Amino acid sequence: MAKYKKLKIVCDACCHKPNAHLGFIGKGKSAGGIIFLDEDGMVVSEFGVYLGDMTPPQAEYTTMIRALDKAASICRGVIEVWLDSEFVVKQMNGDYGIKSDNMKPLYDEAKKLERRFTNVEYFHHGRNSALAKTADQLAEREYRKHQS
Predict the structure, then answer these.
(1) Inter-axis angle of helices 104-114 and 56-71, nearest 10
(2) Which site among 28, 51, 119, 123 is 20 to 30 Å from 6 CA-CA?
(3) What's the rounded Cα separation, in Å, for the pair 112 and 135?
(4) pLDDT single digits (tens) 98-137
(5) Any idea where the domains of the chain sit in the sequence?
(6) What does the alpha-carbon distance between residue 38 and residue 42 come to, in Å, rounded to a whole number?
């Protein structure tokens, strides 16, 4: 049975790519950070997930998908998803289309997971917000755990 009627999810992903400073688009070792907050803003859970080799957008989507999947075990009501990726938020809200063939399955998976809840809304926040920084720290910590 669902424990919460409303849940706020804050997600962030990190993607460490070789030569990222050169603007190379490609895959890097990735991890995600996820925070669940109840309707009063109290932290219910926070954790990191290791994702392996992904592009930055794939890492953002995969972190969000993992969060939505896990959230369904404690909430079936209203979900707010907060991301610092304005691009992903605009895609999920229907403001931007999905042009990349490798991103469409991730988008479709997220939309499928939405059906587990009464309502899902997506919001953008800056990287400097306290919760965004915490989610980023969770992602970076998880990334470091998997490096040798």
Answers:
(1) 20
(2) 51
(3) 24
(4) 988 989 999 999 999 999 999 999 999 998 999 999 999 9
(5) 4-145
(6) 5
